[in-house]
DNA sequence: CTGAAAGCGCTTACAG
DNA sequence: CTGAAAGCGCTTACAG
């Protein structure tokens, strides 16, 4: 009662294994009669090719891993980034007829397991999402010559093609907007120190303030709504006179606005708020959130194209997508 | 510049392939000297076993697929069920040293691709989550003798071991509670007709009402918050005199409470509300939601154990976990 | 158009 | 304890 093999199908159809292989793989050079006989045998026996055997000889698997370096709680959180990215990447990948394998690598043990899986040749390529600073995955993967790209610029010392949006430029635009509105004490809630995106946005904030002789006022969050709330409270305590805040992502901005409301500050009258991402919820806050739009979908699609291109021997140059200031009512 | 093979490592270490294989797989019957030589060669060459080749001979992959039959938008929605289940199942599976492969099968095309992947022998077993009525996956999988289990009772005609909670009993407890509180016109917002869990809860609701001569008042939702809101409006329009509603999941209950608030009905004074699931948000509604607790984590863990057991030749009897009425203030 | 044969990279009885 | 050899289930030049 084991699953039938090519051999068994060939025997039943009265042909060679090569012929069965040809019709199973859509080969065109088979006479209709043999073709029919094979098809019948395949149906009758319920034959399905063993993919391990096939990939052993073809040296390809037609699968791509989508590795998200976060624990499930964060991936399945209220941050719509993951859903958007995974959906866009999946549909792009499926269009290219590749199976998408989703792997969550949130813990050290999980990380090691994923590394073993990827370097073991189970996939033709890998797309890394949400990498953190000390991530050992890129090095291991590239050492094994598995084509890989990152959505988001990786930490400095790894040599990995990537797609990102212009985090620095976006942050600069946000802070400049605040300055143009006449704000004088502009604070920021930055992202986690081990994520490049967060750091780039902080750098953009600092660059503009330095150029205008303003003092930096910085609190750190971890991109969750709750951390935005906590950070905002911290900021208000440190500097009650602040009149604006640039928050490194919209989700934290939602938390920050809640903290401001609780502290009795009006937005934007007392404190102007600018976020980053332009998630859907940004349109429904009270008041609607001014933010930097980040093209998640295009980023994901571009990352997939970059990966597919590299697997095809193509260009490895990074791609950086522009961001856009979306002015609503919070600043 | 290709990746090194066992053969190459053997040549370098001056031993046979068999010996390399033994040390790589932790075989104990190798003299320390050879062992060291092999280890050194492995390190120097950066050898990593080709898993396709290994699984071809061992007939196992040590991977388990977690197939969620939903589109990304729903999996990554505000419904914490998916995160909870995926996390619990993953950690249980990793404890058993299995690689977890997450696959989203939300579209027909995706479904076909996943089926090909699973029947192609890429995994040792599969755990199905959130199956819908007409799902062809179970049949295809079992035909190929791939061990599989479902989290949630599958639609009637497939023969698939499963773990579920007592949906009927839970719904009955909810409605009985409403009756005991003296409610007379008890409506329900049911889940989608193609999902067994939703139907079982509806059956429980109907069973209790029939036993007490009450009329059923039914609206249908799809387990999302928004659908709960819409369904509640519908219900109020159909029967303005209703004084209680049993909602088939908490997320829809949140939507329903919003609709009630908008319609000027007080909870529980005018309309009592009971949900199902006991998600975290249920504790923070205004008023806190009375609901049926469903042990997501234990369910996921039990499903994994059932699968692992079956793969080990063990029992295939379904497991049904009890639910519990959690009385808060909404009813 | 079709088949015999080699080979993908491993593991595992079987001798020794 | 170690190695030669068979074999896992496929694909693909190569002849014919």
From TrEMBL, chains A, B:
It comes from the Bacteria. Keywords: DNA-binding, Transcription, Transcription regulation. Residues 4-58 form the HTH lacI-type domain. The keyword Transmembrane does not apply. InterPro entries: HTH_LacI, LacI/GalR-like_sensor, Lambda_DNA-bd_dom_sf, Peripla_BP_I. GO terms for molecular function: DNA-binding transcription factor activity; transcription cis-regulatory region binding. This is LacI family transcriptional regulator.
């Amino acid at each position: 009662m084991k699953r039938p093999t090519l051999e068994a199908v060939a025997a039943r159809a009265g042909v060679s294994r090569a012929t069965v292989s040809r019709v199973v793989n859509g080969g065109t050079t088979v006479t209709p009669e043999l073709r029919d006989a094979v098809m019948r045998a395949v149906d009758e026996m319920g034959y399905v090719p063993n993919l391990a055997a096939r990939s052993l000889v073809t040296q390809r698997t037609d699968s791509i891993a989508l590795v998200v370096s976060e624990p499930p709680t964060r991936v399945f959180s209220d941050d719509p980034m993951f859903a958007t990215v995974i959906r866009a990447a999946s549909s792009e990948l499926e269009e290219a007829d590749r199976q998408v394998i989703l792997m969550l690598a949130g813990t050290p043990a999980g990380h090691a397991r994923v590394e073993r899986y990827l370097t073991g040749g189970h996939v033709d390529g890998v797309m890394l999402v949400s990498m953190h600073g000390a991530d050992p995955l890129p090095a291991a993967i590239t050492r094994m010559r598995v084509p890989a790209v990152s959505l988001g610029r990786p930490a400095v010392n790894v040599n990995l093609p990537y797609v990102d949006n212009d985090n620095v430029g976006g942050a600069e635009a946000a802070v400049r907007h605040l300055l143009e509105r006449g704000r004088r004490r502009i604070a920021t809630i930055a992202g986690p120190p081990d994520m490049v995106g967060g750091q780039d946005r902080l750098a953009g904030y600092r660059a503009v303030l330095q150029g205008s002789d303003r003092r930096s006022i910085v609190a750190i969050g971890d991109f969750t709504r709750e951390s935005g709330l906590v950070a905002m409270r911290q900021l208000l305590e440190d500097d009650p006179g602040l009149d604006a805040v640039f928050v490194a992502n919209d989700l934290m901005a939602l938390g920050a606005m809640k903290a401001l409301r609780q502290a009795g500050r009006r937005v934007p009258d007392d404190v102007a708020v600018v976020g980053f991402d332009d998630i859907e919820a940004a349109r429904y806050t009270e008041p609607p959130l001014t933010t930097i739009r980040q093209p998640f979908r295009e980023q994901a699609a571009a990352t997939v194209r970059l990966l597919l291109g590299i697997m095809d021997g193509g260009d490895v140059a990074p791609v950086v997508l522009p961001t856009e200031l979306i002015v609503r009512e919070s600043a």
